[in-house]
Design brief:
Elements (H helix, E strand, L loop, with lengths): L5 H14 L3 H8 L3 H8 L68 H16 L1 H4 L10 E3 L4 E4 L6 H11 L11 H8 L6 H10 L1 E6 L2 H13 L6 H14 L12 H16 L14 H5 L8 E4 L3 H11 L19 E2 L2 E2 L23 H4 L5 H10 L1 H6 L12
Parallel strand pairs: 2-3, 3-4
Antiparallel strand pairs: 1-2, 5-6
């Protein structure tokens, strides 16, 4: 392990005094937050996989709290205290980038630069409202040899890119077995020390995939609440929505409607923003700017879901990873047969007589169609909850408002 000098130890103790943190409080800081637990416990189902989660997230707690190797100075005020801890599973000594397969010589196109500058401008406008956000290194997936860092946004091609990361690890594990998010978290932890994290971070390409917030909400509904699932968490969520938000007693469907689900999501978002620690929704329904803190992490590459294939292919080519990665969309919303348990993926078979008539043509799966029965007043409430996602990444809700 790395030796810490007396001077460095003194700096850390000075930082603790400045923060007013006792040793006990520091250990409490090291405990993974509820939101981070949601991230790793979140089940991003691939098709209708119902296998049990067999892998657990390894502890991120350091062996001692004296391992911080660098002064917590004014210039590091944007670093979250949780990121000052050590990650025993992470890289402990500096390693140069892979000469043949890395993002070290990445060329930022004019369009990518414009996106990044637009985000920075939006963050400047929102600064008084957002305050000084802290970098959350732990939210990134660190492909260190490739110098490629990724913050997964659920329902924005996250399954596709987590499978790509699985390929980078050369793991032979089946992505359909167990919790893919947990696997990738374990395989791509942050570097072991704060000093290494800062250095690798500065040398890497940071990327995120974003999507229109309302399209993402519809996709989450179709996949988690209306899609075929054996996942107990989402089945319990469905029951809760029906019991609390269903107003038509004659409706016996086991699948909550989109309107019922919107009422549920609105209430959950209100609780979350009020500081309630236990909410039923997970990362699929929460604003992605809350998790990936784009105003703190200056993402070099912002991939738009609307141009996913072209943007992803450019990223892969620039990092010389074309022989290892692909741009396939691995977990699209279901478009197959509707059943009483939910709509299945197109490839799934259904027993004779068990399918329900599909009243909608494929165009009805577009998010605008789902919002037609939602009152403008509730659309405006949804917009307020997802407003930072809209404003930071240049999306608009105008076409969703019927009286606009």
């Amino acid at each position: 392990s790395v030796k810490i000098s007396e001077d460095e130890m003194g700096l850390f103790k000075k930082w603790k005094l400045e923060q007013g943190l006792s040793k006990k409080q520091l250990k409490e800081k090291e405990v993974v937050t509820e939101e981070e637990k949601e991230e790793t416990d979140d089940i991003e189902e691939i098709e209708d996989d119902d296998s049990e989660i067999t892998e657990k997230v390894k502890s991120n707690e350091p062996s001692t709290d004296e391992k911080v190797e660098e002064e917590y100075s004014e210039t590091d005020s944007a670093i979250d205290t949780e990121d000052l801890i050590d990650y025993p599973e992470g890289l402990t000594e500096y390693e140069p980038a892979n000469f043949e397969h890395s993002c070290s010589d990445f060329t930022i196109t004019d369009s990518l630069l414009e996106r990044s500058q637009a985000v920075q401008a939006a963050c400047s406008r929102l600064h008084d409202e957002l305050g000084d956000q802290r970098k959350l290194f732990s939210r990134l997936r660190w492909a260190v040899p490739e110098r490629l860092l990724y913050c997964p946004v659920f329902k924005a091609a996250s399954t596709s890119w987590l499978i790509n990361y699985l390929k980078l690890s050369n793991s032979t594990t089946d992505p359909k077995n167990g919790n893919l998010h947990t696997k990738i978290t374990n395989l791509f932890p942050p570097p072991g020390t704060f000093k290494l994290r800062k250095q690798i971070f500065s040398e890497s390409i940071k990327f995120i995939i974003v999507r229109h917030p309302f399209e993402r909400l519809v996709s989450a509904y179709r996949d988690k609440l209306a899609g075929f699932s054996r996942n107990s968490h989402y089945l319990d969520m469905r029951k809760h929505i029906i019991q609390k938000y269903r107003k038509r007693s004659k409706d016996k469907s086991a699948i909550p409607s989109f309107r019922e689900s919107v009422d549920f999501v609105l209430d959950e978002l209100k609780k979350m923003e009020a500081g309630v620690s236990k909410v039923m929704i997970d990362g699929h329904f929460m604003p992605f700017s809350r998790r990936c803190v784009p105003c703190a992490i200056n993402y070099d590459v912002i991939i738009k879901f609307e141009s996913l294939e072209a943007d992803s292919q450019y990223l892969i080519d620039q990092c010389s990873l074309g022989d290892r990665l692909s741009v396939a969309h691995e977990n699209p919303a279901p478009t197959g047969v509707r059943t009483e348990q939910g709509q299945k993926n197109k490839s799934k078979k259904v027993k004779t007589g068990k399918s329900l008539p599909d009243k909608s043509a494929s165009s009805s799966f577009q998010s605008l169609d789902f919002f037609k029965d939602i009152p403008d007043s509730k659309i405006k409430q949804l917009y307020e909850h997802y407003r930072h996602d809209f404003e930071i990444f240049g999306y608009s809700a105008t076409e969703y408002l019927q009286d606009s």
